[in-house]
Each structure stands twice: as structure tokens, then as C-alpha cells.
Design a protein that fits this description.
heterodimer, A: 428 residues, Rossmann fold, 2 domains, 5-stranded parallel sheet, 4-stranded parallel sheet, B: 288 residues, mainly alpha, 2 strands, 74% helix, 3% strand, globular, disordered C terminus
Chain lengths: 428, 288
């Protein structure tokens, strides 16, 4: 009898234990946010990915084959602005040691190409949000089998050149109208890096077609600490507009010295470092009136833009830049994973190739198809991704382009503001 | 006119920097590769004292130079003095120290760009060319410093003792001059010059941990061009390379990214054709 009671007791106890035992928890989906974390653009790549992950987790996670899984972002410092070797070591480590499932981010093309090879070796999906050279996705076009795991949610520099030229054309119209000058002079100022080559080439080809005379192309090093000789030379050339393309620290120096010397030429184009809030302090306020082409601004590009922009600014006291489209990249992965029902890279590639998504950055995120020259690159154009030009005005930024281009004016944008010294110089 | 003015400005900065390096090389006879890092460190010291503690601009700049000199002398006493006879070891350790200091700044401040305000903001138009007031001030300071250095080295007992040390250490010792102390003073004066150059240009450029590398290359090129240890050679070399860089920007704008390469090319050519530099022979003769 006693023995029977013991057996019954053991069986009951076993059931109780089994019922009380923790249920197997689904492993989180690990996404590496890659970027140079010692500089703001890199940190923003992580911050935006983190915001997306938080939102997804709060909403219950990602459904993978009937199981809800949370998202975990692994902050990965690639130091890629300094060393491509460090970047390769960082991506290798995050794949093999941290065992991430996906990769988003990267900043500089030269390092991205090296990291891309590592990601492809491990068949990991890499969504590039910073590096802009067309080469990154041209590799998908030329060797699809090897590079098909690469996608990009930032406009490549060939399209960027087009957008920035549309922006230049609109600005030239404004300048002509304001100054009453028919033939404008254009100075091209770009750092000597691979991503900027197509932009410079486009400038030299397209400006004359727009009725502008290219008075010179200045290409200092991305790390130059003083560009006053270049700026003086530009002023001497009589340029009305400076078309810029910089991603290194030299861009900040240029903007600071442009404002301090009151160079009588308005700027258009892009400065990576001008996308972040720290730019204002770094230039000591001389960055006023500096415009920069980027992916997002404080205007209603899509219904998701302002909620994301405001949340990001409130949380981090910083502006999200183009590279922070890691926010959309994480959401894209969620969409693709849920449709694929697994984390299998090939299945997700197939889903990403079909995706048509309204992001915070662009009205429609779709990728060029397999076989295209720019396979897996972000589709550019009205209604798709256009990018915006933000202009610094008294410590804040405003969207000033597109402003009527192809019928697009995002709610909350305003016309380009001319620096007073520019008007004073040319109207005297 | 643009080239003339831009060249004078750039040459002035390079001159202050190179004189300090030359002084250390000539007097202490050490290739102190940590030197250019002090040019960066002074900017950060200034930033801390001025921005974070809200101290007056000139006072904070002076304090930053003092802090830099103290750190420089400390580094010299601790890591270099005892091994200064071993030239290769000195080169290696001072280079390692340079990167060590850079990493420390990177760790403490990250690579975010920082700005310090100009002593005199704005610009003036000189013969139709815009010149930043800070640049004009730098030029004036550079001329005053060159004069003061000349006065110090040629007209004061201490200066003459430093020059004597650079010529013959053994004789100097026999005459009762503490040559170790003279070398340390030369290092201190040299680093003070790097510090002054740093506070002069920090408001024109931007603070970042790697800002010392470009001037480092320039300084090496200038002292090789001018002649190792020759102050006169350093001043002339500074202006030659300053003008060469500016001319490149104006005449070949597409190639302005190879500005630093001009210095490197000059360095290689001089080393191959005339290793002693422009005034190196005189310096060697002086030492003999």
C-alpha cells in the first residue's frame, strides 16, 4: 500500500514538475548593426536598428514558422573609416562568434566591399544602408550566385548624382531668378573617394547641359584639415553654386570655413557629416545655410516618417541620417522572414526580391530585379526612393528638396534659403 | 595674390611646428616622433578647460599649452631620456607613444569632431583676398615666435648653452653645463611651440584624434628638406612646402588630394639627392 502511494506520489510529482518546467524559449533573431560606432553616423545605424527591434518586440516579435521570436540587435563597431582590415575582422567575429542571422549597415564603400565578401562567404544577408558606390550591387548583377545575399536601402551614388542634379537644377532656377543672371558658374567640390567618382563625372557631363559653366573641380583628401585655399580658389573662379560630395571629416571643415569666409556661392549636394545634429556644434554655427542630400528629413515623406524622426530625435537627441535606414532594413527583414516562414537565407532573398514596402524613408522600397545592372539596389525615382535635401537653418534642419520636382513636395518642406552674404555679394 | 597669401598662412603654421621639432632634434639629438601628437593634445586640453569648465578663452589656451608641455616633459623624462643614446629605440618608442596618446583621446572623446572658438572670429579682405582673422593672428604669432626663438637661442645664456649642447655634449659637460637639463629644456620649448601651433590652428580646423598625422608628415618633410636640426632650414622648408601645396590646389584643383604626397615626394627626392637637406651641412659642421 505504502509502495503504491509512493509510486502514485512520484508520478503526480513528475507531472507537477513537467507542468512547472519552463517551456522552451524561441531563440531571438540576431541582427548585427554594422558601422563605425565611434562616429555619429555609425552610432545612428545602431540606434535606428535598435528602435525598430524595440518596436517589433513590443508588438510581439517576428512570426517564424508559427513561433514568435524576438529581435536582438548586436552593435558592431567596424571602424571602417579607419581600416578595412578592422572592418573585416569585426564582421567575421560577429558572424562566427556572435552567430548573427542577418547583417545591416556599413558606411564606407571601400570597407563594405571587403565586408561584403565575408558576408557572402557565410551566405548571410547583408542590407547595406551607408556605402553608396554602385559597385556594391553591380557585384550582384555580375555574379548573382555569390552576391545575391546583398541588398541596399540607400540610393546608390549614380542615382544620388541624378537626385542631387535634379536638386541642382531646381536651385539654379532659383538663383537665376533671384540674381537675374542667365549663365551660372558651377564649382565641383568632392573628396577623392570611390563613391564620389560617379557624382563628379555626372557633374561634369550634366552641368553644361543645364546651361552652367563648370569653372573647376576640386578634389581634396577626405581627411584634409584645411580647405581655405580651395575655397579661395572657388571664390576667385566666380562660381555662383558649389556642388558638393563629401563623406569624410573634411566636409565639416569645408562647411565651417565656407560659413566663416562667407564664400559668395550657394551649396548643393551632400555632406555625410552634415546629416547629424553634432554638425552644428562642430562648425561652431558656421554651418548655417549648408544643405545636404540625405535619405530622410522632418517632413511627411510617408506616414511613418515623422513618427520615426520625432521618436529618434527625442530618444537620442540626434537626427537620423541616410545611413539610419537600418530602421527600415530591420522591418524589411521582419516582412521577408514572416513571408518565408524561416530564417533560410535563400528563401528570404526570394522574398526580399518581391518586396514592396512603405518605409519611414521612402514611399516605396523595392529592389531592382535579378538580371538588372543594379540588381538588389534600391529603386530610385518619383513615387519610390527620392531622398531629400535638408538645409541647416539656425541650428535646425528643414527639407528644401524636392520642392515641386516631378510634382513632389513633401508636407513640411520649405523653399531653399539663400545666405544673406550671397545675396549681398551678387546684388551689389 | 591668392597663392601668395595662402602660402604665407600655411607656411607660418608649418614653420612654428617645424622649429620645435628641429630644436628638439638639434639640441636633444632625438627624433621625437611623439612631437606632432602634442599639437593635437593641446587642442583637447583647451577644449576641456574652455568648453567643459567654461574658462576664459586666452586663459584656457595658455593653461592648455602649460598642460601639454608638462605632459611632454613627463613623457620625455619617463620614456625617452634614459634610452636616448639608442636612436632606433627612441624612434620606435616615440612612435608607439604617439599612437598610444591618439588611442587615449579616441577612448575618451570618440572621433566626433569638436570645435573651439577663434580668438578673433571672422575675416578681413586683403587685396581682394579673404583672410580669416585667426589665420592673420597665427601669422603674427609665428613671426613673433621666430623672433623670440632667435633671441632666446642667440642672446640668452640658456639659449647659448642649449646650442652648445647641440654642438658637443662632452665639452659642454666639461664646462659644467648640465647637458641632460639642457636637452630637457629644449624638449620643453619644442613642445611649447607645438602647443602654440595647436591653439592657433585648432579654431581654424576641427579637433579630432587623428588631426596630428598630416602635420606629422609635413614636419618630417620640412626638417628633411631644411636640414636635420637646422632652424633656419625649417623655416625656409616650411614656406617652400606650404607654397608647393597651395600652388597644387590652384594649378591642379583635381589633384588637391595629393597635397600631402607633395611633402612625401619632396622628402624622398631630398633624401636621395641631398640627404643632409638644404642647411644640413652647415649644421653638421657646426656640430663638429
Amino acid at each position: 500500500m505504502v509502495r503504491k502511494s509512493i509510486i502514485v506520489g512520484l508520478i503526480v510529482g513528475l507531472f507537477v514538475l513537467l507542468a512547472a518546467a519552463p517551456k522552451p524559449v524561441a531563440q531571438p533573431i540576431k541582427i548585427a548593426a554594422l558601422g563605425p560606432m565611434k562616429v555619429t553616423p555609425g552610432e545612428n545605424q545602431w540606434r535606428a536598428a535598435e528602435l525598430a527591434a524595440e518596436e517589433i518586440n513590443e508588438a510581439g516579435g517576428v512570426m517564424v514558422g508559427g513561433v514568435k521570436r524576438s529581435v536582438r540587435i548586436i552593435k558592431t563597431d567596424t571602424s571602417e573609416e579607419v581600416s578595412a582590415t578592422d572592418a573585416v575582422a569585426a564582421i567575421e567575429k560577429v558572424i562566427t562568434v556572435d552567430k548573427v542571422d542577418f547583417l545591416v549597415g556599413t558606411h564606407r564603400t571601400e570597407s563594405t566591399l571587403a565586408m561584403q565578401d565575408v558576408a557572402m562567404k557565410y551566405r548571410k544577408i547583408l542590407i547595406v544602408t551607408g556605402a553608396a558606390s554602385p559597385i556594391v550591387c553591380e557585384r550582384v548583377g555580375t555574379d548573382y550566385g555569390k552576391y545575391k545575399y546583398t541588398f541596399r536601402t540607400w540610393i546608390n551614388s549614380a542615382f544620388m548624382g541624378r537626385a542631387m542634379f535634379a536638386s541642382l537644377e531646381d536651385l539654379s532656377r532659383l538663383v537665376k531668378r533671384e540674381l537675374g543672371i542667365e549663365k551660372l558658374k558651377l564649382a565641383v567640390f568632392s573628396e577623392k573617394l570611390v563613391w564620389a567618382d560617379p557624382v563628379v563625372k555626372a557633374a561634369e557631363t550634366l552641368a553644361p547641359k543645364m546651361g552652367m559653366e563648370v569653372v573647376g573641380v576640386w578634389r581634396p583628401s577626405a581627411a584634409a584639415t584645411d580647405v581655405t585655399p580651395e575655397l579661395r580658389a572657388i571664390q576667385t573662379s566666380g562660381a555662383h553654386i558649389i556642388y558638393t560630395a563629401t563623406s569624410g571629416t573634411m566636409g565639416v571643415v569645408m562647411c565651417k570655413q565656407w560659413g566663416e569666409l562667407k564664400v559668395p556661392a550657394v551649396m548643393t549636394g551632400g555632406h555625410s557629416h552634415a546629416c547629424v545634429k553634432g554638425f552644428w556644434k562642430a562648425t561652431g554655427g558656421y554651418g548655417n545655410y549648408v544643405p545636404t542630400f540625405t535619405g530622410i528629413g522632418p517632413a511627411k515623406i510617408t506616414p511613418k516618417t515623422l513618427p520615426f524622426w520625432n521618436k529618434f530625435v527625442k530618444r537620442f537627441d540626434e537626427f537620423p541620417g541616410y545611413e539610419s535606414s537600418t530602421y527600415d532594413a530591420v522591418y524589411l527583414l521582419k516582412e521577408a522572414i514572416e513571408k518565408a516562414g524561416s530564417l533560410d537565407s535563400d528563401a528570404i532573398v526570394a522574398e526580399l526580391e518581391k518586396i514592396d514596402y512603405v518605409g519611414a524613408y521612402y514611399p516605396r522600397i523595392t529592389f531592382f530585379p535579378k538580371g538588372d545592372k543594379y540588381a538588389h539596389d534600391l529603386r530610385f525615382g518619383p513615387g519610390y526612393a527620392t531622398g531629400v535635401t535638408n538645409q541647416w537653418l539656425d541650428g535646425d534642419v528643414k527639407v528644401v528638396w524636392p520642392y515641386g520636382w516631378e510634382g513632389i513636395t513633401y508636407e513640411g518642406s520649405k523653399p531653399y534659403t539663400f545666405p544673406p552674404w550671397f545675396l549681398k555679394h551678387w546684388k551689389k | 595674390m591668392d597663392i601668395l597669401i595662402s602660402g604665407i598662412q600655411l607656411g607660418a603654421i608649418y614653420a612654428i611646428l617645424s622649429i620645435g621639432f628641429s630644436l628638439i632634434l638639434g639640441s636633444a639629438r632625438i627624433i621625437f616622433l611623439t612631437y606632432a601628437v602634442f599639437y593635437m593634445l593641446v587642442g583637447y586640453f583647451w577644449y576641456i578647460v574652455n568648453t567643459l569648465f567654461g574658462m576664459n578663452l586666452i586663459l584656457s589656451a595658455s593653461l592648455a599649452v602649460v598642460m601639454t608641455v608638462a605632459l611632454g616633459i613627463g613623457t620625455y623624462k619617463l620614456c625617452v631620456e634614459r634610452i636616448r643614446q639608442h636612436e632606433t629605440t627612441v624612434i620606435l618608442i616615440t612612435l608607439v607613444l604617439a599612437f598610444f596618446f591618439e588611442e587615449c583621446v579616441l577612448l575618451g572623446f570618440g572621433s566626433q569632431l569638436r570645435n573651439v572658438p577663434a580668438f578673433i572670429p571672422g575675416y578681413v579682405e586683403l587685396l581682394g583676398v579673404k583672410v580669416l582673422n585667426q589665420y592673420s593672428l597665427t601669422l603674427a604669432v609665428s613671426l613673433v615666435l621666430i623672433f623670440l626663438i632667435w633671441l632666446f637661442l642667440w642672446k640668452t645664456k640658456l639659449g647659448i648653452a642649449i646650442r652648445a649642447t647641440s654642438q658637443d655634449r662632452e665639452v659642454v659637460n666639461l664646462m659644467g653645463i648640465n647637458e641632460k637639463r639642457m636637452s630637457m629644456i629644449a624638449v620643453g620649448v619644442g613642445i611649447a611651440l607645438a602647443g602654440i601651433a595647436g591653439v592657433m590652428v585648432a579654431p581654424i580646423y576641427l579637433l579630432e584624434p587623428t588631426m596630428w598625422t598630416e602635420p606629422f608628415i609635413m614636419v618630417l618633410a620640412i626638417v628633411i628638406l631644411g636640414g636635420l636640426g637646422s632652424i633656419k632650414g625649417s623655416i625656409i622648408g616650411a614656406y617652400i612646402l606650404g607654397y608647393a601645396q597651395v600652388a597644387l590646389v590652384y594649378l591642379v584643383p583635381m589633384g588637391s588630394f595629393i597635397r600631402s604626397s607633395v611633402a612625401l615626394a619632396a622628402m624622398i627626392v631630398v633624401l636621395l639627392i641631398r640627404p643632409e637637406g638644404m642647411f644640413g651641412v652647415l649644421f653638421e659642421e657646426e656640430r663638429l
